[in-house]
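Case study B.
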Amino acid sequence: MHAVIPYVTAALLFGLGVYGVLLRRNAILVLMAVELMLNAVSLIFITADATAPAPQPGGPAYSGAVFALFVIVLAAAEVGVGLAIVLQYYRMRHAVQLDEIELDAR
Amino acid sequence: MTVADVLLLALGAVAVGSGAAVVSTSHLVRAGLYLVVSLGAMAGIYLVLGAELVAWVQVLVYVGAVVVLLLFAVMLTRAPIGASKDLDRPAWPARIVGGGVALGLAVLLADAFRWMRYELPAPGTAERMGAELFGRWVLPFEVLSILLLAALVGAIVLSRPDIGARNGDEA
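Model:
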């Protein structure tokens, strides 16, 4: 297994996520791009777990996989709160376009 | 090139291709469905790399729950069914920054790891992974459950104007 393949895949996915966050106006599409970035980071964790030198017996194992699990849980929490904010904003203003939000309204 | 290499290349191509479709399609619902494909391909990569439990948690939580939540939000905000014209800002700044990030990270990682071969580790079973999670990582795990509870309460408070609003503030 050549470790560079999943690493470069993760780098490209992270770049796509950054591109999507900067490009999209719709808040839900921005959240989707953020999910892509989070997944790229989990992929880095998993690959590092698979390619790191074998730890001594009794030492830490699966640290990368554990961190990937934590990232997945954090993403679930983030998307829950994020969508609550988006839906509340939609209820108030009937729009989900990020660049039309007035930051100093009222 | 081994079997694992070919699998990683194919799944990575699927993940990156559908990820590009997520950030470039003009259909909101299709973006969510491409996200399913991308996340599923990533779960396949996790399986090849031996992280079995994470792969299935990815399928359960991401494909099963997060994408469904996103599609719910797409429908609750009355998104149009067809193509939308006004989804994107001017593309050039985003292209420069995103392309720079992708290229920079890819060059950095490719330079660090070259074309070195690694032996695939033995697949991690849920039992060993669970022992690690509830042994060494039990404190972060509990902190994370408190965070999930806080996020849950926060989402409920946000979406109920009658308990979120201050006195005399007609939100």
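Chain B touches chain A through 90 residues (CB under 8 Å). The remaining cases will be described in the next quarterly update.
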